[in-house]
Structures are given as structure tokens and as C-alpha cells.
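Session log. Operator J.P. requested a structure for one protein chain; no other inputs attached. Running the standard single-chain path with C-alpha cell output.
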Amino acid sequence: MKLGLIGKAIMNSSSPDLHVRLGKLTGIPATYDLFDANEQPIESLESQVRKVMAVGYRGVNVTYPWKEDAVRLADRASEGARMVGAANTLVFEEDGIFAENTDFTGFISGFRATLGEREPGRVLLLGTGGVGKAVAFGLGRLGASEIVLMDLDPTKSRQLAEELKAQGFAASTITPEQLAETVPACDGLVNCTPIGHEKSPGCPLPAELIAAHHWIFDAVYVPAITEFVAAAKAAGAEVMSGVGLFVFQGVDAFKRFCEDEAKRAAADEQAATLYAHYRRELLREP
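Structure written below.
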């Protein structure tokens, strides 16, 4: 099964390791190539997709800056991809291109695998870009009582709040100045900004605001133990690291690439094994 990833600045992606490893675990041999616009000319997402389709690829993942283009390029899209308005997975079917957003489905799966049946409650979400939108709708689907959005661009947070409300989810926005008063009244704290990445070190909010009653999620997973994750563990909060989203969005994408239910079930059965592997490797958990 020939797979790949199309995006910019992706040469250090762990996705090839995940998909090849999952292929070995399921007995579905897979190759996974990187198409990085910083390394080779890519005129457009469509031009690159047509190239890989012509040489027999089963599908591709898509990342920055083409996730919104991906859903427009598709002939059909999942409910999640339509709701979020973006896709990170394109599957090449006989009747056209199918788009899925496995950031949306993977966040839901990762939340349950890590935090069990815990209710999300009232959640503060920082950063309303591509992954922030997918996670916000995932929180809505998980039953969050309210999703409080903050973005340095208030226009973006207000727009996402309206989109969430249109789907029946409770949503509001705050400014950075309201962080200190908002955090204690929230159950969940979610970082979907780049802050904490090895290239943008730091904590997305003051560490002293994190308390034991919180659960937190950090979309950043390079490094796996971010300053936000470390501060949450020190405070006694429950933690879902970016490794959870990385693994489950990958498993959900692989399942979409599989051609029948038996193969999808085989991939599903290996999700826990794969998650345990990356938690040991990246989070240094026993």
C-alpha cells in the first residue's frame, strides 16, 4: 500500500514510522513517502495529488498549508471534514477522492484512550488554527459543556465560536487579559498553538494557573514532554499529550486507507499496542 504526506517542513515527521510500523503489525505492507514543498517544487495540492494517483498511491495525508484545499479537492468528504472545513487524509477510490479529518476523529479516540470516560466539562482552548478547529469540534462531540476560545487573532476565535454554535455546541471567546480569571473556572486546558514546540519553546499559559482539578491536552508532540505537559504533571493534573493525537489520527488515517473491513479491524486492534509503544519511546512511560 503506497502512502505519503504532502506539506511544508515535514522532513522530520514521524508519520512514516507510524504507518510502516502499523503495516507490519497488521500484515498490510505499507510504504510512506514525504512530499515536502521546501525540498521539491509543488505547484499546488491538486497537481501533487494527480502525480501520486498516476503512479498507484492508495492515499495521502495532507498537512500545512493545504488542509483546507484538501477538502475542496475531494469528490466526497466525511462529516468531520465537512464540519471542520479541512481534511488531513485523502483516499483515492474508484469513484473519486474521499476526504477525512482524522485530527477530529483521532482527538476523540485519544481522549478516551487516555482519560477514559471523564467528561470534558468547561474547556479553554488556545489557538484556533487548523488543529484547533478539529479539536474544538472533537470537544463538542465529546460533550464539552462549553468551549472557551482564545486566539491572538480575535477574529479567528469569534469565527470558530460561531461555527461551533451553528453545530449546537456551547462556545465563547476571551482575550489574553482574561486568562488568569478564566483558567480556574475551567475543567480542561487545551493548547493548539505552536508554543512548546522545539522551535517555539515556552508554556502557552502561566504554569502557576494549572491545578490538580484540570485535565490538559497539548497538540505539540515535538518534544513529547512539553513545558505545558511537565507543568501539568507537576500540578497533579491529568495529561493527554500530543502523542495521543499523533497516534490515533494516524491509526484512523491508516484505517481509511485500508480497502476492507477486516483490514480496518486489524488496524483498530493494534491501536493500543502502537499507543503503548510511542508512550514508551516518546514519553518515557513504563
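Operator note: The mean pLDDT is 95.
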